[in-house]
Amino acid sequence: MSTLQEDVLALLAGDGRRLSDPYPIWNRLREEIPVWKQGDVVVLSRHAQVRELLGDNNILYGRQGTKTSARYERAKQEFSPHGRAAFGRVLDQEFRQLVRMDPPDHPRVRRAVQPPFSARNLAREMQDKVDERVERSLVAMAEGGSEADFKKFAYSLPLQVLGDLLGIPIDDLDMVHSWAQKIAENKFNADSEQAAIEADEAYQRLMAYIDVLVARQQASASETGLVAALLDSERNGVVSHEEAMAMMALMIFAGHETTSNLLAIGLLELLRHPEQWARLVAEPDRVPAAVEELLRFVTPAHFLPYVAKETRQVEGVTIEAGDTVIGVLAAANRDPGVFERPDELDIERSDGRAHVSLGLGPHFCLGAGLARMEASALFGAMVRMFPEVSLVEADLRWAGRSLRTPLAMPIRLR
After folding, report:
1. Which of 143, 151, 164, 349 has CB 3.0 to 4.6 Å from 409, enough for a Cys bridge?
2. How many domains does the chain have?
3. Among 185, 204, 358, 180, which Cα is nearest to 256's?
4. Angle between helices 241-253 and 173-185 (to 10 degrees)
5. What is the pLDDT of residues 216-241, one digit of tens each?
């Protein structure tokens, strides 16, 4: 039998067997070792600690500094020259993105891209498109037979919405998905040289495609909401060209992989709890509340890394300046000190909005409104069109690391 420490390290490394049900491991970590230090890596798992980590605005913890953390520097030394160069390029791409920025760069870039994601603009520009995409995609899925792989559907829908948002032609979506998936599989991976090489190749192809996409839109004067906002900011000197391109890469990745997880694993958990599904079918007005509960219960991204900016004591454990600090959102979202019956899925719970799945403060998820819109549209249409949907098999195979996802999810529509 493995120890708790072995289980946690395996989860952080993306062990498929443990990914099938990671919550007992995260729960044990939160209750037994809420501040767990292994060398220069510290793992935080209680709700209060993770909230402080997520809401911190470059005071106690930083994001940009993770690029040169001891963990990443150690990984580089263990790789071959080719792997080291690939890993360096991956880090360069990751740390140009908004989610890895600290002030003053973070507020500057965020202000430039915020307008298209406001509630009013999203409702005006995207609601009808999302509803239409959902309806059309579900009809197509049903026309394919009584059974379907919902994992494929959960990946294609956010991609199509991103295509509408960023102007990506529908024929290019599968290609873009393949790159985003490879990047997602290797997110925060400092353990495998081959993973770094594969992520580097995916990033190079993705960034070359984004350059072509932007040039194509500029030539045809068809810049869409987010693209137009980014290019206007670049022309006005608010953001650099590299920052604008990195923002588009982030939207392709973050607006696709995390939302796909929410849709696929969200439906999986609803069908594993048939009384919750039946309640949603009977009362479809509860869909927005159900989406909030699924954000808590599923936690699309299980953990996020930071770097400590100063030395301090947390519950008797010394966090040194420069340590990598990992916040386990999936453990925080099931903290019994915050949530009643935290391991139960309850679409009627009153404390669900205390989840930390979308971040906090300055780094609150920019695409939160769009993710909620897509999930609400999908589950609302599912309870109406396929109230008797069921799982074909419950024993799924899983992959990923922070972004845990099923490899396939067969369902029976009727």
Report:
1. 151
2. 1
3. 180
4. 90
5. 877 776 656 678 778 888 888 888 88
pLDDT tier for residue 65 given thresholds of 50, 70 and 90: confident
Looking up residue 90, the CATH number of its domain turns out to be 1.10.630.10
Range of the domain at 160: 4-412
| Residue located via tokens 């068809």 | 222
Q: Quick check: 184 and 400 in contact, CB under 8 A?
A: yes
> What are the φ/ψ torsions at residue 410 (nearest 5 degrees)?
-70, 135
Distance CA 185, CA 12 (A): 12
DSSP for 252-319 reads HHIIIIIHHHHHHHHHHHHHHSHHHHHHHHH-GGGHHHHHHHHHHHH-SS-EEEEEESS-EEETTEEE
Contacts of 149 (CB under 8 A, 6+ apart): 408, 409, 410, 411
Q: Radius of gyration (Cα) for the chain, nearest Å? A: 21
Residues in the chain, overall count: 414
**Main-chain dihedrals φ then ψ at residue 159, nearest 5 degrees:** -65, -45
The residue assigned the tokens 């300046």 is 321
Query: Cα separation of 152 and 410, whole Å?
Result: 9
Distance (Å, whole) CA 137 – CA 264: 14
Helix (H, G, I), strand (E, B) or coil at 2: coil
Q: How far apart, in Å, are the Cα atoms of 372 and each of 114, 166, 288, 294, 301?
A: 17, 18, 8, 11, 15
